[in-house]
Amino acid sequence: MSSLQPLYLRPRTRADLAAGLAAHHGDYALLAGGQTLVPLLQKNPGKVGAIIDLRHVEGLSDVHEGDAEVTLGAMVTLAEAQDRLAPIFPSFALALAKTANLPVRNWATIGGSLALFDTASEAWTFLHAYDADMILLGPEGEARRPVALGAIPPGFALTAIAIGRPSPGEAAGFAEILRRRSGGRALAMGFARSNAGGQVTVTVSGSGIPPTRLGSFGQIAGKALVDSISKTGAAPAVRAWLLAAARRALANLTEAQDPS
Ligand SMILES: Cc1cc2nc3c(=O)[nH]c(=O)nc-3n(C[C@H](O)[C@H](O)[C@H](O)COP(=O)(O)OP(=O)(O)OC[C@H]3O[C@@H](n4cnc5c(N)ncnc54)[C@H](O)[C@@H]3O)c2cc1C
């Protein structure tokens, strides 16, 4: 049972962060950009026993562009991720431009965005489509865990996300279906990727359906796409949105491959 006023911890090192996580046995919230957490705690301050503020932990806002992969610190804001990743993953930059609005993106972090594992999350869907790994800090130190495995186990904090660089000749397309033209939560979204050999994969999500890889298509055949969407178990209306998102992502992929 938590007291009404949670304890406030402000670790500066990963060792202090790990100690804070261990001391509170899952009865804590990690404060990143606060865009979701702060309104939640304002409504229900006794929800957790401790708030562990990530904003002063060394190195969590670093971006490392290696030869094989790009590593984004968990505290990199969505706005910065959009700028830094645009030359490497243009489809993700487009997706981030559609995430929330600029004031939110200036505060919200890539770690906080992924940690929610919201089925309408552009970040989760992209990271799943690109087989990214989470770097998690826990009692035994840091370890990698594929984003595809889902939720962060209690007692762990996300410190970074590692994304393999696209292979030469790879192209991608992103699309999302919104309720209104002006924005709002996505009903469905899709990322289509093609490799140099012409193999295409499509990942869709939204409306309660977590990011789902629809399979590899040598050639995108309409029926193969419809069949794999029906296997998601989505309700008919949601299947229609997923299909529309997948088809638009494929059209955008074709345009990225041949902009003329
Ligand atoms: C107006 C508005 C519109 C939005 N629209 C969209 C949208 O279109 N698409 C979309 O995807 N999202 C959207 N969001 C959600 C927004 O992206 C999230 O609020 C934000 O990403 C949360 O990030 P944060 O850094 O603010 O995390 P916080 O609010 O600080 O934390 C959120 C949760 O993540 C946990 N957490 C944070 N960092 C870590 C970490 N490093 N390791 C483990 N757990 C962690 C916290 O404990 C907490 O439970 C919207 C939010 C708002 C307010």
TrEMBL record:
Key words of the record: FAD, Flavoprotein, Oxidoreductase
Annotated protein name in UniProt: FAD binding domain-containing protein
Ranges where the FAD-binding PCMH-type domain occurs: 1-168
Domain of life of the organism encoding this protein: Bacteria
Flavoprotein as UniProt keyword: yes
Organism, as annotated: Sphingosinicella rhizophila
